[in-house]
Amino acid sequence: MATAPLTVIALNCSLKASDKPSSTDVLLGQVLSELAGHGVSAAGEVVRVAGLNIKPGVTSDEGEGDDWPALRRRILDADILLLGTPIWLGQPSSVCKRVLERMDAFLGETDDQGRMVSFGKVAAVCVVGNEDGAHHVCAELFQALNDVGFTLAATAGTYWVGEAMQSTDYRELKETPKPVATTNAMLARNAAHLAGLLKGARYPGAPG
Amino acid sequence: MATAPLTVIALNCSLKASDKPSSTDVLLGQVLSELAGHGVSAAGEVVRVAGLNIKPGVTSDEGEGDDWPALRRRILDADILLLGTPIWLGQPSSVCKRVLERMDAFLGETDDQGRMVSFGKVAAVCVVGNEDGAHHVCAELFQALNDVGFTLAATAGTYWVGEAMQSTDYRELKETPKPVATTNAMLARNAAHLAGLLKGARYPGAPG
Amino acid sequence: MATAPLTVIALNCSLKASDKPSSTDVLLGQVLSELAGHGVSAAGEVVRVAGLNIKPGVTSDEGEGDDWPALRRRILDADILLLGTPIWLGQPSSVCKRVLERMDAFLGETDDQGRMVSFGKVAAVCVVGNEDGAHHVCAELFQALNDVGFTLAATAGTYWVGEAMQSTDYRELKETPKPVATTNAMLARNAAHLAGLLKGARYPGAPG
Amino acid sequence: MATAPLTVIALNCSLKASDKPSSTDVLLGQVLSELAGHGVSAAGEVVRVAGLNIKPGVTSDEGEGDDWPALRRRILDADILLLGTPIWLGQPSSVCKRVLERMDAFLGETDDQGRMVSFGKVAAVCVVGNEDGAHHVCAELFQALNDVGFTLAATAGTYWVGEAMQSTDYRELKETPKPVATTNAMLARNAAHLAGLLKGARYPGAPG
After folding, report:
1. Cβ(D159)–Cβ(D126) below 8 Å
2. CA–CA distance from B169 to each of A126, B61, B126, C110 (Å)?
3. Radius of gyration of chain C from its Cα atoms, rounded to whole angstroms
4. What is the ipTM of this complex?
5. Chain C residues with CB inside 8 Å of B157's CB?
6. How far is CA D170 from CA D27, D38, D174, D175, in A?
7. CB contact under 8 A, C164 and D139
């Protein structure tokens, strides 16, 4: 088993600039707090991705002004990636899609035994919306994250949405709904456990 | 413009046998009522598909005991297909998937100008769940229905789900939420209008 | 029936800047050519969206430097929207997602009878990738476009992808595969027909 | 680390009865062979689910004639679930959806520390089609399997589809395409590794 302390990087893929309150931030904060209770420390503040210049493209460096190379480095330095996104039209935000797109490059960034740079990292997902769409957002994120090398612990997603066609924001709720709190705790417990196991025992590579 | 009266067939893809109450039935009934207000008459009772033997396969007749050929005939005799499904795990029911799968055969059932048997029919979708999943179910149903030749009017889906991770059933609600009622009415108005237009002016076929 | 000539605006949601060759452009061009054969004229050049500054947000004008208001105007002035996107990780591009997100505002832009600004417009989709993902991209685009008020004619999507896990680009093909050419023609024929019908007979609004 | 031998159960969700050749079987067989090379033994023959009577419902026993309880037992007795499905209309088969639906019951089948009966099991996915749809099928299966408690190793899906709109079957190929063989091997290597880790160190439960 791993004994080194684990770290998590959290990305907030809200469409809003960093000075605006974000429901996604609230859910990310709750999960980060649960992770802290399992000895996982946050690798810096939650990253408000819309405040960075993540250029379109599918390489790891799209040139001048591209903020991806530095963010990519931070993602690969952490043991756990916590990816948070709002829901628009039942789907993940364009900012979240941009992040996934840039990780497409991991598919070609392998060691001499075929292991991507992301192998051994655990990913988890936080999804927030006024209404409907969380399961689908989880589906798209799980598939994309898994394709680019992340491992998904049991219950790798947590979410909140209101009743159909309503407009309440998660950050307006007076208290965290009990099933959401339970899911947040389970997600954190499982992600921390699995990240520890994988840190202590890397995926084997392809025979040379 | 078409003057012949329009007809609609409604399918309930609940997992439950026909003697059990179904929230999907409630929403289908509301939309059928709206359609009636636009002169669209129901082609018989709502079909509880789980009560039929729709055999697995992708041809229009899978042999002895297959209830699909008769249901297929009724679908093609109507002007509008109203497809209702519950949500399980954020996705359409297996019963609904079976219906779509059987319509895969339409892709090869074309006239001498390349028009599928379903061309000119309008489809609309009713989705009900305890929680989250409606947008994705609409996405899968829209794509599959469109692939097999149906036309989708503006706002071709209506739905209800409760707050995340909750367990209220639509049929337990004391009254229809206003935005759902508004959407039901809009869906019916648009579907009836478009079905009338297409009945009066068929899609042109490929030049011979 | 409408007698005014129909127009189409085509958006290319490639991740690449406008001076780079794009497979999405090739497929869009083929469909535009088919549409021209049905009397539908292009409303200007194909728009390379990555070359514009479409700001994140869900209003129709996100302020200084936002290129969306002008593009939005052009979309609403045309009768048909032809939306083209490449596939990355089996999903639509972040550039395409941004466009859909901005159209979320249409949900609130209704006349006094509840009709969105987009009602009566027909949308169609062109999807290109090295490999797998086209059906899902169509599903997401159909659902989002329909949610924001567009109508989908039978066979509203055309696509090309190569064999699984391969890397051929559509623009490298020596000739258009026959089933793709057939689908392109059918999509154009149906979209033109339906746009004409809807131009001649608007969706009715809600009674006042 | 676990020293007990690992086992895998493979489900083929083809629409075809068990005496018909299946491309899904070919891919499942290739992955099972890779797993065997890592000491994972098959828990019996590949299960042709269409040959069983898996009744509609979301409980673990839908009564007389239901073949699910026995299949459920076998799934929970194995360390790895290998779920294989064909693609129809770009989506998983109705037979596959039925299996996922029945596992919905796992959500309520927890021990006194909130762990589902499936916690600690690893799932992987094999997808085969004539054309397009594999990424989406992986997305839906990953999300549903993860929701009901399965863990997903890096690269938890392998697939084959032909070029867009073509009709070649995987079982007709003269040899396995190299990237598919590489993916099969990677999937098996990672799944075996992770299943071993989790067998040796269970997910911790919620404090009592």
Report:
1. yes
2. 25, 36, 15, 31
3. 17
4. 0.97
5. 143, 146-147
6. 8, 25, 9, 9
7. no
Task: Return the structure tokens found at D153.
Answer: 């190793």
Task: Determine the residue of chain B that is closest to C184 in CA distance.
Answer: B206
Bridge partners, A80 (sequence order): A8, A122
Domains assigned to chain C: 6-200 (3.40.50.360)
Residue listed under structure tokens 């026993």 = D61
- Torsion from C-alpha of C123, C129, C131, C137, nearest 10 degrees: -30
Task: Find chain B residues with C-beta within 8 A of D57's C-beta.
Answer: 15-16
CB atoms within 10 A of CB A36: 14
Which residues have C-beta within 8 Å of that of residue B156, sequence separation ≥ 6? B123, B124, B125, B138, B142, B187, B190, B191, C146, C152
Q: What tens-digit pLDDT sequence spans chain C (208 residues)? A: 445 699 999 999 999 988 789 999 999 999 999 999 999 999 999 999 999 999 999 999 999 999 999 999 999 999 999 999 999 999 999 999 999 999 999 999 999 999 999 999 999 999 999 999 999 999 999 999 999 999 999 999 999 999 999 999 999 999 999 999 999 999 999 999 999 999 999 999 998 7
pTM of the entire predicted model: 0.98
Interface test with A, best of D186, D187, D193 (most A CBs within 10 A): D186
Task: Note the residue count of chain A.
Answer: 208
Spatial distance between the Cα atoms of B207 and A117, rounded to a whole number of angstroms: 54
**A contacts of B89 (beta carbons < 8 Å):** 135
Dist. CA A40–CA A79, nearest whole Å: 9
D206 class by beta-carbon count within 10 Å (0-12 exposed, 13-18 middle, 19+ buried): middle
